[in-house]
Amino acid sequence: MAMAALRREGRRFAPLLTPRPIAAVRSPSLLPEEEVPFGARSISTQIVRNRMKSVKNIQKITKAMKMVAASKLRAIQTKAENSRGLWQPFIALLGDTPSIDVKKNVIVTVSSDKGLCGGINSTSVKVSKGLHKLNSGPDKEPPKYVIVGDKAKVQLVRDSRKDIHLAITELPKIPVNYTQVSVLADDIIKNVEFDALKIVFNKFHSVVSFLPTVSTVLSPEVVEREVESGSSKLGELDSYEIEGGSTRGETLQNLAEFQFSCVLFNAVLENACSEMGARMSAMDSSSRNAGEVLDRLTLTYNRTRQASITTELTEIISGASALEG
Amino acid sequence: MSAPMPFWRAAGMTYITYSNICANLVRNCLKEPHKTEILNREKVHFAVSTWKDGKAEKPVIRSDVVED
User: Fold this and answer.
1) Domain residue limits, chain A
2) Helices (DSSP H) in chain A: which residue ranges?
3) What are the chain B neighbours of A189 within 8 Å (beta carbons)?
4) How far apart are CA A190 and CA A174, in angstroms?
C-alpha cells in the first residue's frame, strides 16, 4: 500500500522535478512498459514494411486491371463504332425528337454491372433523374425506369424505388451480341407500356471522354400522330413509298420495334466501351497514386533505417573511443 | 389495325422476334466452319426482374448458355 502511494506521489511530482516537462510526460514512468521494450533504441520498421508490401500489391492489381480493360476496349471499340451504322438510318428517316411531349415516358438507363470505372454510372443516373423530373407533370403518368446493369439500380433504388419497373442484370456476362440485346428489347416492349422510350447511355467519344446521351424511340401511335401534324421531320414520311401489302401503320410499328432494338444494341455497346475506357483511366490514375504513396513510404522507411544505423555507429565509435582514452 | 395482320404478329410476336427467327434461318444456311462460329457467338444471357411498388420480384434468368 505504502509503496503504491509513494509511486503515485512520485508520478505526480515527476513533471515538477524534471527540467523538461514535455519529455517527462512521454517518459516510460507514465506509459505502460510493454509499448516500448526496455533497451529499444530505434523504432520498429515492421509496420511500414508491411504497408509498403500491401501498397505494392494494390499497384500490381490496378496495373493488371488497366491492361485487361485496355485489351477489352480495343475489341469492343470496333464493335461499337460499327454498330453506329444501325441507328443512323433511323435518324435520317424518323428524325430525333428528344423534347417530345407525351404521356407515358419510360427511361431506359444503361449502366455497367461492375464498379471501379470512374463516374460513368453516376453520370447516366444523374441524366436519368433529370429526364424524370423534366417529364413528370400533373397531366402525365410518372415516368418509369427500366434499368440495365447493377450499378444504376443500386443508385436509383435509394430515392426512386417506386418508379422502377424493370431491372436487367448479368448482360455483360457473355460478349454483347445483337441476338441478346434484341431479345432484351423484345422483353422490354412486351412488358412496358410506353409512348416514348428514352435511352440514357454514355456515348464513347475517346478513351478519356464520353458523352451522356439520350436517344428517343417513339411508339407507333405517337409517330402516327406526329406524321399527321406534320410538325417535325416526321412529316416527310409521306414522301416515301411503302412496298408490299402492309399499311403505313404496320410499317411504322415494325420500324419502331426494330429501331428500339437497334438503338438499345448501340447503347449497350457504347456504354460497355465507355466503361472500359473509364476503367482504364481510373486504374491508370490509381496505379500512379499507389506509386506516389509507395515513394513516400520508401523515403520515410529509408530515412528511419539510416537514422538508426547512424545512431548505432555513433554509439559503437564513442564506446570504442572511451575504452581507448 | 384495319389491314390484315401479318401471320407472325397474329401469333403474338413482335417484329424483333420475327426478324431474329429469320436471321437465325439465314445463319443456319452457312457452311460449316463459319456456321458453328457464328451460332456460338449469338447467345443470350441476362436476368430480368420486375419491380412492383418498390420491391423487386425474383429475377427471371433468360439464358441459352450452358453453365459450366
Assistant:
1) 80-234+248-277
2) 2-17, 21-26, 46-94, 120-135, 150-160, 178-191, 220-229, 248-324
3) 14, 16
4) 24
| 8 Å CB contact of B46 and A171 | yes
Residue B60: strand, helix, or coil: strand
CB contact under 8 A, B16 and A167: no
DSSP summary character for residue B51:
E
Do A180 and B44 make contact, defined as CB atoms within 8 angstroms?
A: yes
Q: What is the pLDDT along chain A (325 residues), one digit of tens a residue?
A: 444 554 544 444 444 444 444 444 444 444 444 455 666 656 678 888 999 999 999 999 999 999 999 999 999 999 999 999 988 888 888 877 777 788 889 999 999 998 888 889 999 999 999 999 988 888 888 899 999 999 999 999 988 888 898 999 888 888 888 999 999 999 899 888 888 999 999 999 988 889 999 999 888 888 888 777 766 566 677 777 777 767 777 888 888 899 999 999 999 999 999 999 999 999 999 999 999 999 999 999 999 999 999 999 999 999 999 998 7
Length of chain A: 325
Task: Indicate the residue of A186, A246, A253 with minimum beta-carbon distance to B17.
Answer: A186
User: Closest by alpha carbon to A221, among B1, B22, B46?
Assistant: B1
State the complex-level ipTM.
Answer: 0.88
Give SS3 for A145. Answer: strand
Subunit contact A179:B56, Cβ cutoff 8 A: no
Give the one of B19, B42, B61 whose C-beta lies nearest to A177's C-beta: B42
Strand partners, B50: A166
Cα gap A237→A255, rounded to integer Å: 12
Beta-carbon separation of A253 and B15 below 8 A:
yes
**Chain B residue set in contact with A, beta carbons under 8 Å:** 1-3, 5-6, 14-17, 19-20, 23-24, 41-51, 53-54, 56, 59, 61-62, 65
Per the structure block, which three cell numbers stand in for B65? 448458355
Q: Which of B5, B20, B50 sits opposite A182 (nearest CB)?
A: B20
Q: Let me know: does B55 contact A300? Beta carbons within 8 Å.
A: no
CATH number for the domain running over A80-234+248-277: 3.40.1380.10
Task: Give the separation between CA A281 and CA A308, rounded to whole angstroms.
Answer: 41
Q: What domains sit in chain B, N to C, each tagged with a CATH number?
A: 7-63 (1.10.1620)
